[in-house]
Design goal:
This protein is α/β, with parallel strands linked by helices. The chain has a single domain (57-230), classed as Type I PLP-dependent aspartate aminotransferase-like (Major domain) (Aspartate Aminotransferase, domain 2, 3-Layer(aba) Sandwich), CATH 3.40.640. It is 31% helix and 12% strand. It contains seven helices and five strands; from the N terminus they run H-H-H-H-E-H-E-H-E-H-E-E. It has helices at 10-18, 37-44, 60-72, 87-99, 115-123, 143-149, 172-185; strands at 105-110, 126-131, 154-160, 188-192, 217-220. The protein has a five-stranded parallel β-sheet with strand order 2-1-3-4-5, sandwiched between helices. Helix 5 links the parallel strand 1 (105-110) and strand 2. The longest helix has 14 residues, at 172-185. It is globular, with a radius of gyration of 19 Å. The chain starts with 9 loop residues before the first helix and ends in a 12-residue tail after the last strand. The protein binds pyridoxal-5'-phosphate.
Length: 232
């Protein structure tokens, strides 16, 4: 397993801090948003005698609330489709493990979030990168370049929208092109939408709004990048 390239930098930052150097952590996706007091209070004052196992799909009320949150953003989702994991990382790993077999391939526009490499390795699958270009702001590479990479082992396309690290937000027409491709080639679409609340030019169109592919789209999201102050 490769170590996380992001975490690799942590000891250097710690050493620099010890020497009194001011460090700006541009390497880790840690939003500087205060955790809502109501949440911290609920944790501190939880009146539980035994911290019990819960439903392995997640607490029902949380799944229902999340479904309502996604529906309010125009997504077609039922609470029964929502599974709770320990963050986005575990969700990506579980999605790979659930949908793919050892040796399968997924096509991923690069540059991409470096930890995908470790998750793919843990699941025994291969990432086939397609380079996006700085000259057009890292837009979706032409669909023909995806088609060229498709082999009998290709089982899915993986996108990150908004993209980490490029910040690129896929347009509706790009998402529709991906939708048509996954339908035509019988592929899964894994969509990491962790950063949807960090879009500054209107709403990000989720893959869960795409018609006709609900049975093959896995959307991954995480509380670690949510601005909970924006919701009620
Ligand atoms: C694009 C992207 N996806 C997934 C994750 C992992 O999310 P989590 O920290 O909830 O495991 C991160 C974390 O930085 C990320 O940047």
């Amino acid at each position: 397993m490769p170590s996380s390239p992001i975490r690799k930098l942590a000891p250097f930052a710690d050493a620099a801090k010890k020497e009194g150097v001011q460090v700006y952590h541009l390497n880790i996706g840690q939003p500087d948003i205060e955790t809502p007091h109501i949440m911290m209070e609920a944790v501190q004052h939880a009146n539980l005698k035994v911290l019990e196992y819960t439903d392995s799909r997640g607490i029902l009320s949380l799944r229902k609330k999340l479904a309502a949150y996604y529906i309010s953003k125009g997504m077609d989702v039922n609470y029964e489709d929502v599974l709770i994991t320990i963050g986005g990382s575990e969700a990506i790993l579980f999605a790979f493990m659930a949908c793919l077999d050892e040796g399968d391939e997924i096509i991923v526009p690069e540059p991409f979030y470096a930890n995908y490499i470790g998750f793919a390795m843990a699941a025994g699958i291969h990432i086939i990168p397609i380079t996006s270009s700085i000259t057009n702001g890292f837009a979706l590479p032409p669909i023909a370049s995806f088609q060229e990479k498709i082999t009998p082992r290709t089982k899915g396309i993986f996108i990150c929208n908004p993209n980490n690290p490029t910040g690129y937000v896929y347009s509706e027409s790009e998402l529709l092109q991906i939708r048509d491709l996954i339908k035509e080639k019988d592929l899964y679409l894994f969509s990491d939408e962790a950063y949807t609340e960090f879009s500054y030019e209107g709403n990000v169109k989720s893959t869960l709004t795409l018609q006709g592919v609900a049975d093959r789209v896995i959307m991954i999201d995480t509380f670690s990048k949510k601005n909970l102050h924006k919701q009620d």
